[in-house]
Amino acid sequence: MRLVLERRNEQSVAVAVLSPLLAVVLTLVTGAVLFAVLGKPPLEALRIYFLDPLTEPWALQEMAVKATPLVFIAVGLSLCYLANAWNIGAEGQFLIGAVAGGGIAVATHGTGAGPWVLPAMLLVGAAAGALYALIPAFCKVRFGASEILVSLMLVYVAELVLDYLVRGPWRDPKGYNFPTTAPFDPVAVMPTFSEASRLHFGSVLALLVVIGAAVVLRSTLKGFEIRLVGAAPKAARFAGFDDKALVLVTFAISGALAGFAGVVEVSATVGHLQPGISPGYGFTAIIVAFLGRLNPVGILIAALFLALTFIGGEGAQISLKVPLDVTKVFQGILLFYVLACDTLILYRFRVMPAHPKAAHAA
Amino acid sequence: MRRLFVAAAVLALALGAGAAQAQNKLKIGFVYVGPIGDYGWTYQHEVGRRALMEQFKDKIETSYLENVNEGPDAERSIEALVRAGHKLIFTTSFGFMDATAKVAKKYPNVWFEHATGYKRDKNLATYSGRFYEGRYILGQIAARMSKTNTIGYIASFPIPEVVSGINAMMLGAQSIKPDMKIKIIWVNTWYDPGKEADAAKALADQGADIIAQHTDSPAAMQMAEQRGIKAFGQDSDMIKFGPKAQLTAIINNWTPYYVERVKLALDNKWTTGDVWGGLKSGLVQMAPYTNMPDDVKTMAQQTEAAIRDGKMHVFKCPVSGQDGKAVECKGGTHLSDEQILGMNFFIKGIDDKVPGK
C-alpha cells in the first residue's frame, strides 16, 4: 500500500473551511509537544498563548491595535494579488505614507494649527502611498519591468528617505541628536477611545475598509474585473477589460491603504517619526493576505489571529519564561500547517495498492 | 450598569491578585532591544538579571522580553510586564524612552528604570555608563599599536553617546600621536552582524589596522581575527571571538547597579534618580589588556587608574572643535556632563562630519 496525492477535479468547499481548523488543531498538538519537551506544562502554555489574551479586555484592545495596520495593508494587497499584480513593496508604501502624513505634523508642530491637521495627514498619507505604489505599476505596464523587484527595491528607498529626514532636516532640535522628530501636537494624534486605552479610531476605519472591500469584490463590476483578470486574463481581455489599467488601479489602491496604515500608525501609536516605525508590517501583511485567502473577512480574522500569536507569545515569554525563539518557532509551525493543509484543498490523499505496476496492469 | 459592575469586579480581582503576589516576591521585568545572545549590549543586561537571581534567590522573580521593537510595540511590551504584576521594570535601550515615560505616568505605583535616556519622573529613574572613559584608553592603545596610524570605527547612530565616544577615542589617540587618523562607517543599527562585518572589512580595506566599534555584535572582532589585525571588544569581553585580535574591551557591568536598585526596592526605599557611572563605580570595566607589548599595557593601566581616581578627565579643557576653536568650558576644568550628554560636534583632527549636521 502507498499513499499518493491526487489532484481534485474541483476545489472542495468543505475542505477549504476545514483546512484552517485542521491546521490549528495540528499546531496545538505540536505546540503541546514542544512545550512538554521544554519542560513547561503544555496545557497551561496553550492557555497562556491562546486563551488568556482573549479573556482580558486590555489584551483584546492590544490585539486590535496590532491587527489594524495589518488589515489595512493586507486588504489592499489582496486586491493586487487577486488581479495577478504582485505588490511586494507595501512596507515602503507604508513608510512613505507615514513620512508624507507625518510631515504635516512636523511642519505644523508648535504653530497652533487647527483640527484640520489629522484629516490632512490621513489624506496626504494615503495619496503618497498610492503615488509611491504607482511607480512599480507604471514601470510594469510601460516598460515591462518586474513589479515584484521594483516594488521591493523601493522599500529600501523609503527606509532611507525616512532615515535621512529624521536624522537631518526633520530632527527634533531638542532631541539630543537622536534620530526622531519632535513629538506630534495633540491635533496630529489619532484619538483613542479612552485616556487609558491605546485602542484608536484607526481600528474602526480598518473595519470599514474590510466591509468596503468585501462589497466591491462581491457586488461591483470593478470587483468582477479584478477577479476575472486574475483568474482568466485572456478571457478578461476578450471581454474588453484593460488589464494594464487594472494593474495601475490595484497598485494605487493597495499603496493608498498601506500609506494610510503608515500615517495611522505613527499618529496613533508612535507619536513621532523615527526609523523603525514599522516592525515589518508590510511584509507580515503578505502572510496575512494569503492566510486570509485574499478575502477581506478572512484577512480580518487572519490579522487578529496573527496579533493573538504576538500578544500570546509575549505573555508566554513573561509567565513561562520561554525565550522569544520559542514563540517564533510556534508561529512558524502554525504557518507551516496552514500552508500544508491547503494542499488538501487542491489535492486529496488516495490509498493505492502496493505495486504500482500491478495497479497499472489492472 | 451590569457591565460596569463586571469591570469593577475584574479590576478588584486583578488588583487583589497583584497585591498578593507583591507580598510574596518582588517581580522584576527587563525589556531588551536585542536578543540575549548578542554577546553585547543586551547580553550584559542579561548577565545583570541572572546575577540578581543568584543574589536574591526566592525574594525576587524576574522576567524579560527580548528583541522588543523600539517603535509601536514597546509601549505594549512594557505594559504587559506591568499587568503581569512586575513592580520594578528596567527598559534597557534609548528607544524605549517615550514608551517608558508614558507607561510610568499610567502606573504611578510601579518603579521604572530607563537606561541611557533623559526623561525622568517620580517613578522613572535613568542610568547609564560613562563609556567614553574607556574609549580614551582605547585611543591611546590604538595610537601605540597602529602601523598605518588609522583607526577604523564602526558607529551606530550619530547620537551624543556615540559622538562623544569617537571624540574620546581620538583625544586618547592624539595624546600619543597628534596626527592619528580615524575612518568612520555609520551602519545605522545597534545589532546587525552582517552589516558590522561588512563595515569592518571596508575599514580594513581602507587601511585601518585597528577596529573599534559602537555596535553590539562580535562580528567585527571575528573579522579582525581572520584578517590578522587588532580590534577592541564592545559591551562584553569578546576575547573568545578574537583571541589574537582583541586588545581589550569596554565591559558594561550593570550588575552592581542592578543589585543596589533591587535592594532599595526590596526595602521599599526606591527613589527616582539619575546615575551615570564610570570606571570608578565599576559600571565601566576594562577587559584584560592582551596582544600588546608590556609598555603599552602599563600605559593603559596607568591611564585607567588616573581616570578612576579622578586625576584626569577625558574632556579636559580646552577641547577644540573641528574649526579649531576651543569649545566653551562649562564644567570648570573640563566639559560639563550636559555638554558630554548633548555632544553634537567632532573634535579637531577628525575629518568626517557628524551626519545630519
The count of domains of chain A is 2
Q: CATH topology of the largest domain in chain B, what is it called?
A: Rossmann fold
Number of helices of chain B: 11
Biggest interface pair, residues each?
A-B, 38 and 40 residues
Order of helices and strands of chain B: HEHEHEHEEHEHEHEHEEHEEHH
Alpha-carbon Rg of chain A, integer? 23 Å
* Total of domains of chain B: 2
Total E-strand runs of chain A: 2
Mean pLDDT of chain B: 91
Structural class of chain B: alpha/beta
CATH class call of the largest domain in chain B = Alpha Beta
User: Biggest β-sheet of chain B: count, sense, barrel?
Assistant: 6 strands, parallel
Q: Helix coverage percent of residues of chain B?
A: 40-55%
Global Rg of chain B = 22 Å
- Mass-distribution shape of chain B: globular
Account of the 3D structure:
The complex is a heterodimer of chains A (362) and B (357). With 362 residues, chain A is mainly alpha-helical. Chain A contains 14 helices and 2 strands, in the order βαααααααααααααβα. Chain A folds into 2 domains: 1-40 and 322-362, no CATH class; 66-313, ABC transporter involved in vitamin B12 uptake, BtuC (Orthogonal Bundle). Chain A is 71% helix and 3% strand. Chain A has a two-stranded antiparallel ribbon. Chain B has 357 residues and is of the alpha/beta class. Chain B folds into 2 domains: 2-129, Rossmann fold, CATH 3.40.50; 131-252 and 286-309, Rossmann fold (3-Layer(aba) Sandwich), CATH 3.40.50.2300. Helices cover 41% and strands 18% of the residues of chain B. Chain B has 11 helices and 12 strands. Chain B has helices at 2-24, 41-56, 74-83, 97-106, 131-145, 160-176, 193-205, 219-227, 255-266, 294-308, 337-341, and strands at residues 26-31, 60-65, 88-91, 111-115, 124-129, 150-155, 181-186, 210-213, 230-235, 246-252, 274-277, 284-286. In chain B, the strands form 2 sheets. Chain B has a 6-stranded parallel beta sheet with strand order 2-1-3-4-5-11, sandwiched between helices. In chain B, strand 1 (26-31), helix 2 (41-56) and strand 2 (60-65) form a beta-alpha-beta unit. The longest helix of chain B is centred in the first third of the chain and has 23 residues, at 2-24. Residues 1-22 of chain B have low confidence and may be disordered. The A-B interface holds A 56-58, 62, 65-66, 163-164, 167-168, 171, 176-179, 183, 196, 198, 265, 269-272, 274-279, 311, 314-315, 317-319, 321, 323-324 and B 7, 10, 29, 35-36, 63-67, 69-73, 75-77, 79-81, 83-84, 94-95, 98, 106, 118, 157-160, 163, 188, 341-342, 344, 354-356.
